[in-house]
Design goal:
Elements lengths: L5 H15 L7 H15 L36 H6 L5 H9 L1 H4 L13 H15 L1
Bound molecules: heme C.
The site of heme C has 26 residues, from loops.
Length: 132
């Protein structure tokens, strides 16, 4: 696995603090910061934030607006994820991130799963704030 380049990490952190400012003090900012932290450590190595920047996994930008398995230009989707044609919302993301292989049998995302519901919640909130 390649190390995450420093500038990308800094950019992701900068983005999170930028997003966090309007809500500071409400608790939502804490959730976003936690979600950013989890995303940077557990997802960023395979999923970049920028449109079309595919790595091991597809760029997730725009994922809330399209069915699963349809990021333009990503050629390595499993048949299962494409056929599932899931709408990515809170319910489907909770199930997928908890146990990707349990949800999609031939899933190609080599990820053990986020067991903590609070962690999943935080990372989903972060992705919404970032990609929506
Ligand atoms: C080791 C690399 C890797 C890691 C780590 C990883 N993913 Fe993935 N992810 C993939 C691959 C590969 C796919 C495509 C899976 C398939 O086609 O079956 C994928 C698919 C996805 C999808 C579906 C995308 C689409 O276009 O339908 C989402 C959402 C997702 N990952 C979110 C996450 C989140 C959130 C994390 C961190 C908690 C994460 N992934 C960690 C490799 C990874």
């Amino acid at each position: 696995m390649r190390p995450i380049a420093g500038w990308r990490r800094l950019m992701a952190l900068g983005l999170a603090s930028f997003i966090a400012v309007p809500w500071s003090g409400t608790g939502a900012a804490d959730d976003l910061a936690k979600g950013e932290h989890i995303y940077a450590r557990q997802c960023l190595v395979c999923h970049r934030l920028e449109v079309g920047e595919h790595r091991i996994g597809p760029a997730l930008h725009g994922m809330f607006d399209r069915p699963s398995g349809t990021a333009p230009g990503f050629m390595r989707y499993s048949q299962g994820l494409k056929n599932a044609a899931l709408a990515w919302d809170d319910a489907t993301l909770h199930r997928y991130l908890q146990n990707p292989r349990g949800m999609i049998a031939d899933n190609r995302m080599i990820f053990v799963g986020l067991q903590s519901e609070a962690d999943r919640q935080a990372v989903i909130a972060y992705m919404r704030a970032t990609f929506d």
